[in-house]
Sequence to fold (369 residues):
Amino acid sequence: MLRSYSRIHIFIVLAFLLVLFGGIYIYLGYDSSTFSLCQPCNKSSEPDVKSTMAKVMEDIVGPTECQEKGSWKIGDLTMNYGVKYAQPSTQQGRTDVNSVTNWNAPLVWEGTFDPVVIDAIYKKMDPRIAVVVFAVGKYTRFLEAFLQTGEKYFMVGFRVTYYIFTDHKEEVPNIDLGEGRKISLLDIPSATRWQDVVLGRMKWASIAIDKQIRNEADYLFMMDVDSVFYSRFGAESLSRLTGVLHRLFYKVDRDQFTYERRNLSRAFIPFGEGDYYYTAAVWGGYLEDMYKMVKYCYMQSEEDAKNNIEAVWQEESHLNKYFLYNKPTKVLSPEYLWSDYDQVPADIKVVRISQLVKNYAEVRPNGGQ
Ligand code: UD2
Fold:
């Protein structure tokens, strides 16, 4: 009895040792098909780890889809290597501005990110980015510069579709677009009041997201057309919900924000509340989060209309209320929407996009300032 137990034990121990040594042998990078108790004299002592890894991964998940220089794509996992960038510091960075909100979201300024690192992260995901822009009435004149400079600076190297909502399709200019970038034209009616155009953006964008854009994009930006890009506006702006600080209010007390102060409006925010004042000329995020927010602004303005009130800064007032109670996951500095009307102060190291000077009275259907 004792003898047969001992034999079984010896057999188990031997089998265990065999598996253990076999595992170590393969781990060190040797091919199991060449297993031999003595090493061939001409075998290099440096194991070819890369090809062994590729073989092991191939056994686990099947053949690699692509193995270009600099990246490995295995299943849905992409590994980038060899991306060269400066080492990030824990001690140095921008000290003249705050680069984090009090809910711990990034507040993005030049010098708070490395474009090489950011691009490497987002290019792996290859997101489809929608830009919703309205050009109604005489505003079609702004399309050429917006699109031309957008091609130079906006999300270069990414897939971008400009959704142009217009009542004058024939006035949309022909622009050479980069690879993976296109224009989609959407018809909307003309308007007699500029207020109806800016507020109507929420309605028409909600409908278009429902009918079309939802199937074609991962991220969505809403932008004013009367603006030009002057410098990189890249993947550092991407997040679940991204707001941009309005250039006129980023250093003032919250009670000076031009929030809607009439409590009859759905956009009402009382004095003593508020984080920042955000512009409605540039904002973005995940498609579904943007849809929720765009539709919220639309529904709230419809409620206001029933009560014969229009928020003081139209959709911008509703947007500010939404952002106050549903904090953005990223906040962009006014670099991400400056204005050609204003001098550039020292804390704005780079103007990425800027609102153009325009003759309000001439360009708007009902004039106004
Ligand atoms: C500010 C905001 C804008 C919006 C508006 C609401 C900035 C830089 N912009 O812009 O986002 O909140 O106030 O009052 O702070 N549009 C047309 N046709 C028109 C009128 C407007 O296509 O007849 C579109 C166009 O895309 C334009 C956008 O609506 O860029 C905003 O209108 P605006 O530029 O006349 O408004 P503005 O400069 O007062």
Observations:
- The longest strand covers residues 128-135.
